[in-house]
Structures are given as structure tokens and as C-alpha cells.
Amino acid sequence: MRRRNLKFTSQTAQTLLLTTVSGLLLGLCGLPLGWSALTPVPLALALWLMAQGNGPAGVARRAFWLIFVYFAVQLWWLTRFMADLSGLPWGGVLVLPLFAIEGAFWAIMAWLVTLPLRTLYARVWALAGGWVLLEWLRTLGPLAFPWGDLGYTLLPTPVAQTADLWGVLGLSLLVSFTAASLVGLVLRRYAAVLVAGLLWAGGWAYGQTRSEAAGPEGRALVLRSQFDSFGRASGDLGGEAQFQRLLQLSRGRQPGELVVWSETAIQNEMDIGRVPAAGIYGMYRYPNNSAVSWDGRRLGAVSYDKLKPVPMGEYFPFENTGAGRAVWSQVFALFRLRFDPPPIGHSTQPLSLNGVLYGTYICYDSIFSWVARQQALNGAEVLVNISNDGWYKGWGVTQHFQMGRMRAIETRRWVIRSVNEGVAAAIDDLGRPVATLDSGEGVLHARYRLLTGTTAYMRVGDVPALVLALLLLVAAGTIERRASRRVL
User: pTM of the entire structure?
Assistant: First the structure.
């Protein structure tokens, strides 16, 4: 009995070590690292390890820990943010529940898709399809958090250009399919590897043949400010002082340039009449986090309110109930912050200015493909992302910027990005940063193209990727049935 217990403990320790290493490798192949396109390799190891679990529950346990480690690596910067916010040296541990929640999502998915399966190879394909479906589900609801999706890891390659066909979710499908086919290669199942090779070759060729579209030139003065986000939130940094500094930065405006100020740059909506020129301005209109257009005399008829508040940053469970609001108010008071979460916006209408439609969205909205897609479908000729990235630390700043580049590819629109801290940029319709400013206060004299047209992704959205992910589950069932027949 003792020998058996020692053997069990040894196997458990070995499994824990392997899943930890797999999660680390997967996390270290994500954004913003330059070798992120290698993600199918550690993902293949992850699928293989999870699929070897003892029954669906064993698969789920492995998935939980592997994903916990993966997000601990990808979101390590949140520990620093939480330490700064709380003022406690150990404050970083407060984000551990987030990693556990993400792990729980993958554990539930893994349990569900492998419930009817026993063979390792069938489980691998089920997990590959389930992964993509879960990424899509993570874009839904008020607690949506699609950070760390696999498709973004292909940004350094020409294959990323196929996002105008099937979106970033389609790229995630390609990554997961490739990883599952690599497991098949080890198991001497070669058909899927050939298909993956053809998809990569076709995607590479497609990406290499894309070129920048022609269109009328637009001109903008894009600001990058450097205000302390914690000071702004607590009220220690006055709105008038910020406004005056933004006016000084805007003095370098050249003739014909519209002005773009970042998220909540204007703290008092009465100040809109004092802005330096026509442009797109981030404005805090209590309690709304908004973007408005100003033609030099009046506000545009359409304004934009942030569609996706950051979970546990701008949206809190039960915040609209009396008890929930009381609890959250007390929590915020501990950090000398006022509890005033903004309401969720509803409109995806572009802002109109001087005859041009600007598809404007705010901060966290930029990692949701459907927001930019709807703006483009509604006629946007250029996308404008205003953001306050002062909350992000380390990798978080670059990850946010890189994910936003995918919106340019999916819609074939230029993206203009004005930020407080973070990366100010002009990004062309191929997702390439043409001009960037990532440190210090300053401005970009951005030149961009006004473009129209509809991409395949704009027409059909995530439907192709979702159908293909479901087909992977069907394939898993087929593999299982064939294996059962051979046994019989």
C-alpha cells in the first residue's frame, strides 16, 4: 500500500511539473514576444498533456492548472498594477482569483468536450475545437475578457493578413488545428499535417500579396499625454491642469490636421468650447465615458459611449443593486477612489466630422473584433482608438497595442490611436504601425488613408471559424467511433 501511494504521489508530481512547464512555454510564446508565431508547438504539448488525463475529470484538472499558469505568465503585469492600486507590497496576489477563473473556464470546456471520449487522439481534436469555441464565448457578456487569444500570436507573420477573411478567431482556429495536427504527426497520423501545411502555405501567399489600399489622405494631430492614472481617478490631479497641458501639446497642430485627444482627456464637458480645433475628443460626461466630435462650433449629432467596460475595473457584478453598490463603494473607499462605474454604451455609429465618418471606440473596446467591424459596416472610413493605458504595466501596454492592430486587418481600415501613456500610433490597413510614440509627452502628425469597402470578415463575422471549430468536434467523434470499432 505504501509503495502504491508513493507511486501515485510521484505520478501526480510529474504531471504537475509537466503541465506547469507546458503552461509556462505557452505563455512565453504569446504577445508581445517576437517568436509568438511558434505558439502551435507548445500548444501541441498542452493538448497532448491534457488529453492524457484520467477521464474527463482528469482532463479538466490538467486544463485548469495549465491555463492558470498560462495566464499567470501572460498577465503577470496585473500583479504590479494591483500592488500599485492597493499600496500593499503583497497586493499582486489579489489577481490570483482571475487566473483561477480563467483556469475554471478551460476546465469546464475540457470536461464537456471530452465527456464522451476515451482515445487520446480524439480528445486532442475535441480540445482544439473547444478552445476556439471558448475564445468566442469569452467575447460575450458583461464579464467578457478575450485577452490572450491564440490568433494574435500570428501577427508577426504574413498569415495574419487572412484575418480579413475570418477574423482573429479564424487565426486561433489555424493555431489550434496546427497544434492538434502536430500531435497527430507524433502519433503517425499524417493527413491533418498535410492540411495544416496547405493552410499555412496558402495563408502565407495570401499575406505576401496584400498591399496598402489607395484612398484620400487624412491628416491628424494625435496626442500622447503622460498623466498619472491613479491621480486622475482619486482626484489628486486636477482636471484644469490636465486640460492646459493638452492645449500646450496641441499648439503644434499643422493646417488641415484634426486633433485627437485620448480617453477622458476632457474632464468637464463645458470645456469642449475651449478645445484648440475640430477633432475627436475623449470626454468624461458623468457618469459616461464618451468620445465626441467637434467641428469648431458645435458637437456632432452622434457621440460614442464605451461599449465594453473593463470587468472588475469599470464593471462589477451586482453593481446596479442596492446591496452590491454599497459593498463596492466600501471597497473603493479603501483605496481612496469613488465608485462610479460608467453605464454600458449601445451605439456603434461612427462620429461624423467635416464629411468623414470616424469609427471611434474607447480603450478596452479595441480587443473586441465586433466593435470595429460594426463601425466599419456603418460606414467608418478610418478607425480611431482613444485610450488611457496608464493602468497597464509591462507587457500589458504592448499587448493592448498589438491586439488593436488586428482591427486594421479585419476591416482594412487605418487605425489612429491617441493615448494617455501607452502607444500612440498611426496603423495602416495592413496592420503595420506607420508612426508610433511610446514614451514621453508628445504628438504625432499622422497621415492616413480614408477607405471604404467591405471585407469578407465584415460580411460574415466569426461564422466560418465557429463552423470549423464545430467540425473539429465532429472529427473527434469520428475518430472515437473508428477507434471503438477497431477494438471490437
Answer: 0.94
Instruction: Note whether 150 and 230 are same-domain residues.
Output: no
Phi-psi region of 188 (alpha: psi -120 to 50; beta: other; left: phi over 0): left
Residue 143 has pLDDT above 80, yes or no: yes
Q: What is the pLDDT of residue 318?
A: 74
Spatial separation of the C-alpha atoms in residues 174 and 169, rounded to whole Å: 9
Residues 280 and 427 in one domain: yes
Measured CA to CA, the distance from residue 241 to residue 12 in angstroms comes to 58
Residue 150 lies in a domain: yes
pLDDT tens-digit map of 93-107: 888 988 999 999 999
Within-domain flag for 82: yes
The count of domains in the chain is: 2
User: Do residues 179 and 33 share a domain?
Assistant: yes
Q: How many C-beta neighbours within 10 Å does residue 432 have?
A: 12
Cβ-count burial 120-155 (b if 16+ within 10 Å, e if not): bbbbbbbbbbbbbbbbbebbeeeebbbbbbbbbbbb
Percent of the chain at pLDDT > 90 equals 77
Residue 457 in domain: no
In this structure, the answer to whether residues 176 and 290 fall within a common structural domain is no
User: Which tens digit of pLDDT belongs to each residue from 110-129?
Assistant: 999 999 999 999 999 999 99
pLDDT in tens, 195-209: 999 999 999 999 999
Same domain as 233, residue 85: no
Q: Write out the residue range of the structural domain in which residue 51 sits.
A: 2-210+481-487
Residue 232 predicted with pLDDT over 70: no
Is there a domain that residue 325 lies in? no
Those residues whose C-beta lies under 8 Å from the C-beta of residue 403, and which sit 6 or more positions away, are 31, 147, 152, 366, 367
Residues 303 and 368 in one domain: yes
pLDDT of residue 335 exceeding 90, the answer is no
Q: Are residues 103 and 168 in the same domain?
A: yes
Same-domain status, 139 and 168: yes
Nearest-angstrom CA–CA distance, 47 and 131:
10
More confident residue, 477 or 335: 477
Phi, psi values for residue 365, rounded to 5°? -55, -25
Q: Are the beta carbons of 96 and 79 closer than 8 angstroms? A: no
